[in-house]
Write a structure and sequence with these properties.
Helix 4 packs parallel to helix 5 and helix 5 packs parallel to helix 6. This protein has an eight-stranded mixed sheet with strand order 3-2-1-4-5-6-7-8, sandwiched between helices. It is built from ten helices and eight strands. Helix 5 links the parallel strand 4 and strand 5. The longest helix is centred in the N-terminal third of the chain and has 42 residues. By secondary structure, the chain is α/β, with parallel strands linked by helices.
């Protein structure tokens, strides 16, 4: 009994404090690792630092009332561009427009209604632009939609994520291509994502309305890259270039559909390690304005540097097939411009 009590006392005196110390050291080590990751993410974050001006140039940015689209609009307005904010929520966009004008002192910022999930809205928007705008120097496909839980269809009975992220931009590009060619040298910038590696666009099922909605976000991002590749090929010699990019993982509202309690942990990750919208817009801005990229086309960029894509996303046979099925999905008619 005495021996047992002795060992118990010895355990409490030596082992228990050692366990506490080990736990503290492990916690400190984990914290240092996390801080190292955060520092590395910030250190490798590409920032476009050139002061290139955009006076006299017109830019359309889709989905720019929040996130990286808003920061892109602000940056390009600061450079002197005429910025057309193409947004679904016009009331919110008008408030953002006033904010941008107040900050940049550039009054040449306007809002126009555009719902990329609706073919009718896209056609109305493009008709307005073609009638009212004498030139279009840069078209930025920034708008993005994701719903990790619900299956949704557009007004045209298209799976909503693909309708917004791929088919909408595909149709809009066709309807504005004559104005872009007229304004050459001009540019098209497509905001994709490195998360495309999780998805695979099935050309045999181009409208997967019965499939898991969350997965279609990744599919749409691969479609963005394939679209860029084929569009670049078709625009050779026209003076219109097209490039796509990965903006990084950004702290934006696109993550709001993550359900609780998963969102509690995810929000800690987002706030701790994701880029801010200002950091996230840098590659978009570079592709829109950098004079050294005037002849660069068909490329994929990340952190303001050219990057590589998977063999599946650079397969030109798949890109061509995607184009063909997309023409059918958006119902291009005989009077629509062809690329």
């Amino acid at each position: 009994m005495v021996i047992a009590e002795y060992w118990k006392a010895d355990y409490l005196f030596w082992v228990f404090p050692a366990m506490i110390a080990t736990g503290l050291l492990s916690g400190i080590g984990l914290l240092l690792i996390l801080l190292g990751i955060k520092f590395y993410a910030r250190y490798t974050c590409g920032m476009y630092k050139r002061k290139t001006k955009m006076d006299g140039k017109t830019v359309i940015i889709t989905g720019c009332n929040t996130g990286i689209g808003k920061e892109t609009a602000k940056d390009l307005a600061m450079r002197g561009a005429k910025v057309i904010m193409a947004c679904r929520n016009v009331d919110m966009a008008e408030k953002v427009k006033d904010e941008i004008i107040d900050i940049t002192k550039n009054k040449n910022v306007i809002v126009k209604k555009l719902d990329l999930s609706s073919f009718a809205s896209i056609r109305a928007f493009a008709e307005d632009i073609n009638k009212t705008e004498p030139r279009l120097d840069v078209l930025i496909h920034n708008a993005g939609y994701a719903d990790l839980l619900k299956k949704r269809k557009s007004a045209d009975d298209i799976e909503l994520t693909l309708a917004t992220n791929h088919y909408g931009p595909f149709l809009l590009t066709h309807l504005l291509i004559k104005l872009l060619k007229k304004s050459s040298p001009s540019r098209i910038v497509v905001v994709a994502s490195s998360l495309y590696r999780i998805g695979y666009f099935n050309v045999k099922n181009p409208n997967p309305i019965n499939d898991f909605s969350g997965y279609q976000y990744y599919v749409s991002k691969e479609a963005n890259i394939l679209f860029t590749k084929e569009l670049s090929r078709r625009l050779e010699g026209t003076g219109v270039t097209v490039n796509c990019l990965h903006p990084g993982l950004i702290d934006t509202g696109i993550w709001n559909s993550i359900p609780r309690p998963l969102s509690w942990f995810w929000n800690l990750v987002i706030k701790g390690f994701f880029k801010t919208p200002t950091e996230g817009c840098q590659t978009t801005v570079m592709l829109a304005v950098d004079e050294d990229l005037v002849n660069t086309t068909g490329k994929y960029f990340s952190d303001c540097q050219e990057s590589s894509v998977s063999s599946a996303a650079s397969d030109m046979k798949r890109a061509k097939k995607l184009w063909e099925v997309s023409e059918k999905i958006v119902k291009l008619d005989e009077n629509d411009p062809r690329i």
